[in-house]
Amino acid sequence: MSAARRSPRLDVDHLLDDPRRHVIVCCGSGGVGKTTTAAALGLRAAERGRKTVVLTIDPARRLAQSMGLTELDNTPRAVPDVHLDEGGRLDAMMLDMKRTFDEVVESHAPPERARQILANPFYQALSSSFAGTQEYMAMEKLGQLRQRGQWDLIVVDTPPSRSALDFLDAPERLGSFLDGRLIRLLGGPVRAGGRAYRAFFQAGFNVVTGAMTKVLGGDLLRDVQTFVNALDTMFGGFRERAEQTYALLQRPETAFVVVAAPEPDALREASYFIDRLSEDAMPLAGLVLNRIHIDGPGGVSEKQAIAGAERLEELGEHQLTAALLRLHADRLAAASRDQRMGERFTAAHPDVQVTRVPALATEIHDLDGLREVGRLLSE
């Protein structure tokens, strides 16, 4: 029996039906099908009777299209034409990074102070493009949704980051930056002779200031000081909320579903993420091995198909049959490669539960397609 067959199976329906489970986080490297997986899990959970909201951070807007919505924004919207079981509900939303940051400022600062912060050029650049802001605000929005208590289950599609680990690391980096000693120091008055300005660069902040100066010009320091002074009443709040949401991710009510394709880079990223979840004591549900090729029942082998195609090509006969035989051989080769990749992963992580989803012939573009993915996830 192969290592792939010995790997424990991820029971997706049990995961979705468990009333103790309130958050499912779909994570993995870019381009492996996280958004489709998150949407399919949300739809299946709702149609099995759970009040579900899907939070996506995917800029391609595929989730809205597949759910029959013209658009998604920062407000959860009901998904139409869902076959809801008794008590079920499905809402969906797409993170607006800047709007979420604005909401944090508006809810934690007096009105006049909030207006000062929102109008500040440094804040506008920070809230729109600073590295880690998207991941931080994804965590912020998750915390907000959980506090509202309107849903049994929140399914999160993590940001399309360069590394899946950015989702866990970036909020802490941004919280530390906003709550750190250095940026507090920048709030002090500029000393005579520009010594504080020089110290600013000498303190190792060159990367941040270089990027911001391109946007803001030579008035960067003044804008930073104005921002810090206006934000003074909120210091500590960013880190505190990040820590609260981080604690939520560690509780048993949360489950991480790592999504990967049978490709070396994607599985390597999945392995890193699984190891990190273990180190941080975060609950891993299992791995979705997505878009795998299936060799199907017994029949013509890869070698037989290639040999048959070559013979027909030499004879100059039945060219269509020869082409089909080569296509069959290619499919078998892909299935064999995918199986080896899966076995390599399970050999390194023998206790990780796995569900395998076959590659589909067409793109997912509607609810029926998502239902089919949900069915395949649960098999």
Automatic annotation (TrEMBL):
Record-linked Pfam families: ArsA_ATPase (PF02374)
Native organism: Phytoactinopolyspora mesophila
Domain ArsA/GET3 Anion-transporting ATPase-like: 23-292
GO terms for MF: ATP binding; ATP hydrolysis activity
Designated name of the protein: AAA family ATPase
UniProt-listed InterPro entries: ArsA/GET3_ATPase-like, ATPase_ArsA/GET3, P-loop_NTPase
Spans traversing the lipid bilayer: none
